[in-house]
Amino acid sequence: MNFPDDLRYTNDHEWVKVLEDGTVRVGITDFAQSELGDVVFVETKPVGASLKQHEVFGTVEAVKTVADLFAPVAGSIKAVNEALDAAEVVNTSPYEEGWMIELTVDDPAQLEALMTAEQYKKTVGE
């Protein structure tokens, strides 16, 4: 299982990467994609949508189930990953090509409350 140290994590199994311009990239963790199984479809709210922290921003459909995606921080969707048209990229590359959205962050302090890789590992029993 892969838990990159440069990311922050949520209890809902999303990861967050702070980009150079201060926006954040969001996706689901390696643990989450392995629990879901083969991802066949990803749907997100559109660019420009405003999100509250913990608000559903989309869904991931896998062979076994459908799961909601939750905003780790409040903000506005700046970009949606077009590569998700081939949803299996979430399974093969959850931290690189399989990212879901980029957000302009409303309150950077919310980022500090997210888990480190070590904290997240303990949460999922690694």
Write the topology of this structure.
Elements: E1 8-9, E2 14-18, E3 24-28, H1 30-36, E4 39-44, E5 50-51, E6 56-62, E7 66-70, E8 75-80, H2 89-92, E9 101-105, H3 109-112, H4 117-123
Antiparallel strand pairs: 1-2, 2-3, 3-9, 4-6, 5-8, 6-7, 8-9
Please give a structural write-up:
The chain has 126 residues and is of the alpha+beta class. It has one domain: Beta Barrel (OB fold (Dihydrolipoamide Acetyltransferase, E2P)), CATH 2.40.50.100. It has 4 helices and 9 strands; from the N terminus they run βββαβββββαβαα. It has helices at residues 30-36, 89-92, 109-112, 117-123, and strands at residues 8-9, 14-18, 24-28, 39-44, 50-51, 56-62, 66-70, 75-80, 101-105. The strands form 2 sheets. Strands 1-2-3-9-8-5 form a 6-stranded antiparallel sheet. It has a 3-stranded antiparallel sheet with strand order 4-6-7. It starts with 7 loop residues before the first strand and ends with a helix. The model has no long low-confidence stretch (mean pLDDT 95).
